[in-house]
Amino acid sequence: MNNILLLAIGLIIVASIVYFFNYTKKNTKKNIIKNNKKEDYNNDENQIIVILCYADWCSHCPIIKEWYMDLVEKSPFPNIIFKAFEEKEIPEELINEVPGFPTIFININNTMEKYNGSRTKEGLLNYLENL
């Protein structure tokens, strides 16, 4: 009985260590948001900001976050700024506008609109090309 208990405790410790290293590895990737001040999603005239609001617990978010981050890194739009806020980082002024996760906003000339198009990289690209 003692051996089984020791084995279980050992497995829990090993699993915790593995989780910790995987978690820190994921969170050291390029982060496109440095802080969550209001100026992070307000813009100058003739500037477009695309904002992804996501939650780690949401089952749909990892897929959208993956292609969104790929779009950020390979953006064909030099005049568009991309931002991403994890649920806990969403500014107070914006959190009440998020109906659920994931949500994408498009801020054009300081007019915030919820993106209602296709939740695919191609859909968002098409939408942005037609702005």
Task: Give the SSE layout.
Elements: H1 2-26, E1 48-54, H2 61-73, E2 80-86, H3 92-95, E3 103-108, E4 111-114, H4 121-129
Parallel strand pairs: 1-2
Antiparallel strand pairs: 1-3, 3-4
Tags for this model:
131 residues, alpha+beta, Glutaredoxin, 4 helices, 18% strand
Describe this structure in words.
This protein folds into 2 domains: 1-30; 38-129, Glutaredoxin. Helices cover 39% and strands 18% of the residues. The protein has 4 helices and 4 strands, in the order αβαβαββα. It has helices at residues 2-26, 61-73, 92-95, 121-129; strands at residues 48-54, 80-86, 103-108, 111-114. The protein has a 4-stranded mixed beta sheet, with helices on one face. A hairpin with a 2-residue loop joins strand 3 (103-108) and strand 4 (111-114). The model is unreliable at 24-39 (pLDDT under 50).
